[in-house]
TrEMBL record:
<protein>
    <submittedName>
        <fullName>ABC transporter ATP-binding protein</fullName>
    </submittedName>
</protein>
<dbReference type="Pfam" id="PF00005">
    <property type="entry name" value="ABC_tran"/>
</dbReference>
<dbReference type="GO" id="GO:0016887">
    <property type="term" value="F:ATP hydrolysis activity"/>
</dbReference>
<dbReference type="InterPro" id="IPR003593">
    <property type="entry name" value="AAA+_ATPase"/>
</dbReference>
<keyword id="KW-0067">ATP-binding</keyword>
<keyword id="KW-0997">Cell inner membrane</keyword>
<keyword id="KW-1278">Translocase</keyword>
<dbReference type="InterPro" id="IPR017871">
    <property type="entry name" value="ABC_transporter-like_CS"/>
</dbReference>
<dbReference type="GO" id="GO:0098796">
    <property type="term" value="C:membrane protein complex"/>
</dbReference>
<keyword id="KW-0547">Nucleotide-binding</keyword>
<keyword id="KW-0813">Transport</keyword>
<comment type="similarity">
    <text>Belongs to the ABC transporter superfamily. Macrolide exporter (TC 3.A.1.122) family.</text>
</comment>
<dbReference type="InterPro" id="IPR003439">
    <property type="entry name" value="ABC_transporter-like_ATP-bd"/>
</dbReference>
<dbReference type="GO" id="GO:0022857">
    <property type="term" value="F:transmembrane transporter activity"/>
</dbReference>
<keyword id="KW-0472">Membrane</keyword>
<keyword id="KW-1003">Cell membrane</keyword>
<dbReference type="InterPro" id="IPR027417">
    <property type="entry name" value="P-loop_NTPase"/>
</dbReference>
Amino acid sequence: MPETVLKTVDLTKVYHTGAIEVLALSGVSFEAAMGDFVVILGPSGSGKSTFLNLVGGLDIATSGSAFYQDHDLTRAGEAELTRYRRDHVGFVFQFYNLIPSLTARENVRLVTEIVDHPMPAEEALALVGLEGRLDHFPAELSGGEQQRVAIARAIAKRPGLLLCDEPTGALDCATGVLVLEALQKVNRELSATTLVITHNVAIADMAGRVVMFANGKVASSRRNETQKPASQIRW
Ligand SMILES: Nc1ncnc2c1ncn2[C@@H]1O[C@H](COP(=O)(O)OP(=O)(O)OP(=O)(O)O)[C@@H](O)[C@H]1O
């Protein structure tokens, strides 16, 4: 059995906005092994991003537990969470958040300069098929290429955990598939445990496991017998 690296038990998050309480996550128990590729589906407001933010150390749970290896994320202080994010987690969001005045290579170097044992920026960009775009600025790249720079930036630290929130949300099918191919390659070559939130059910076919959220809970979880190559995904 592959080693479990991420485990949550009864993970719960309540947001307080003025007098209003929102139960965003309600007792989520989840496990992922090293190298798993998990797609998370579910209606808007079902708690997907909240879950990703908690396991990524961007937010703190109200109750329950979340462990990444021996990191106890529900008891960690701010400094420990910052180290956890820096050393172990790569984030990819819908909007690429690249620095417009820096080239692709320089955007990736922002990360490689602050972590131990990074891969060279050029290697990370080659892994996502952008070896020919090293010195291009974001404005000189297509949306899909910008997202692949964001993936290169996320993986250059060799993260154990790669968390993607709607990574193809802003892209058409042809461009989105190139981004998915990059994620699948990174997942396989780095054995990074990969969680992808999407509204696009077609993407579920490339997952090893598909988890459906509803009302802040895991409504269902299934394994795919085979994982479709990203190049064959269409929507
Ligand atoms: N910072 C916050 N403060 C208050 N409420 C929040 C906050 N973040 C999320 N919520 C609420 O928590 C619930 C879950 O939100 P979440 O963003 O996790 O859902 P989601 O499944 O990712 O939705 P979407 O698919 O639309 O991104 C929603 O009702 C949302 O309004």
